[in-house]
Design brief:
This protein is of the alpha/beta class and 340 residues long. It folds into two domains: 120 residues, NAD(P)-binding Rossmann-like Domain (Rossmann fold, 3-Layer(aba) Sandwich); 172 residues, 2-Layer Sandwich (Dihydrodipicolinate Reductase, domain 2). Helix content is 32%, strand content 25%. It has nine helices and 15 strands. The strands form two sheets. A nine-stranded mixed sheet has the order 14-13-12-11-7-10-9-8-15, covered by helices on one side. β13 and β14 form a beta hairpin. The longest helix has 17 residues. It is globular. The N and C termini lie far apart (53 Å). The mean pLDDT is 97. One of its GO terms (molecular function) is oxidoreductase activity. This is Oxidoreductase. InterPro entries: Gfo/Idh/MocA-like_OxRdtase_N, Gfo/Idh/MocA_domain, GFO_IDH_MocA-like_dom, NAD(P)-bd_dom_sf. Belongs to the Gfo/Idh/MocA family.
Length: 340
């Protein structure tokens, strides 16, 4: 037996709160999963979709119960029936598509990574501030129930002072296959697509880094294949994160403190359980009522709707400064990679 008691998850309720009418730019796989999650688990509704191919937009609308299809982001963003735009296009389109929505006065949820560089992140932040709209990175893991519980445990000092955080997020890819993961023109590579999750977890646990030591490899065309980075914060907290397109890892995260530790028991990206260990014993947090897998995408949408209702212009859980710091880590890591 243990005396450990977990705090209650502080996720925004999926139903019963404020709702928004969503438009989606980019009718791909993640947009489909996002739309299905919202319609199945929340009161939020995706009412419009935009693509440069009207046929693709219309097929998406039919397949996911969306009312309207547009052949351009500009036309959809101009619609008075859309309150917020979810940018689900490839990485290199995040900046122009987000700016299009912001210029039309729409709030934006931008699929991770927020942008491809810190300079682009700054441009998005400045545009959102000028327009008076909320811009938020779709780092959905931060809004999941298990993450909110971990955040409270850290804030309460349940494991003492955090001294070390580790994370690995890697999925093997067919490097010979066409697609955005291997296309340098679309920001292909491990760092921006999956490495961002590992960097987010260690930053979430340890704080923003100020020093980076990295190694890894990139192809001659600029597509990064793998990377490992050790970071240090201004307070001296160390972290290590690894990512790869060459192998699949368990995707686990650990946080070690002066009085205990926390470790995820499943892939940290998705809704997961975790173990807390302190001098008082060991206990496992889990919640079988949480929608599994990508159905958890619903939580970030409910959170954004709540933030808008409160008049917020930045996420209090994962700010634009947090997003920019992740891109700074990616930039520092990329600078250390070896061309193979």
């Amino acid at each position: 037996m243990t005396s450990l008691i977990f705090p209650t998850a502080t996720t925004t309720p999926l139903r019963g709160g404020p709702t928004l009418r969503w438009g989606v730019i980019g009718p791909g796989e993640i947009a489909g999963d996002f739309t299905d999650a919202l319609h199945a688990h929340t009161d939020q509704r995706v009412v419009a979709v935009a693509s440069r191919s009207l046929d693709r937009a219309e097929a998406f609308a039919r397949g996911h119960g969306v009312d309207s299809a547009f052949d351009s982001a500009e036309a959809m963003a101009a619609s008075p029936d859309v309150d917020v735009v979810y940018v689900a296009t490839p990485h290199t389109r995040h900046l122009p598509d987000a700016l299009t929505a912001i210029a039309a006065g729409k709030h934006v949820l931008i699929e991770k990574p927020l942008a491809t560089t810190t300079a682009e992140a700054d441009e998005i932040a400045a545009a959102a501030e000028s327009a008076g709209v909320l811009a938020m990175e779709a780092l959905w893991t931060r809004y999941l129930p298990h993450t909110t519980v971990i955040a409270q445990l850290l804030a309460d000092g349940a494991i003492g002072d955090v001294r070390l955080a580790t994370a690995d997020v890697a999925w093997a890819n067919d490097l010979s296959a066409p697609g955005r993961m291997t296309d340098p023109a679309l920001g292909g590579g491990a760092l921006l697509d999956i490495g961002v999750y590992a960097f987010w977890f260690t930053q979430f646990a340890a704080g923003h880094p100020v020093e980076w030591r990295a190694t890894g490899s990139t192809r001659a065309d600029g597509v990064d294949l793998d990377a490992a980075v050790v970071t240090r914060t201004a307070d001296g907290v160390l972290a290590s994160a690894a990512t790869s397109l060459l192998a699949t890892s368990p995707g686990l995260g650990t946080i070690a403190g002066s009085a205990g530790s926390i470790r995820t028991l499943e892939n940290l990206v998705f809704p997961a359980s975790f173990e807390l260990a302190t001098a008082d014993g060991t206990a496992v947090w889990s919640d079988p009522t949480v929608p599994a897998g990508r159905r958890g995408l619903a939580y970030q949408a409910a959170a954004l709707s709540s933030f808008v209702a409160q008049g917020l212009r930045d996420s209090p859980l994962h700010s634009l400064a947090d997003s920019r710091s992740l891109l700074a880590t990616i930039e520092a890591t990329r600078a250390s990679l070896t061309v193979v």
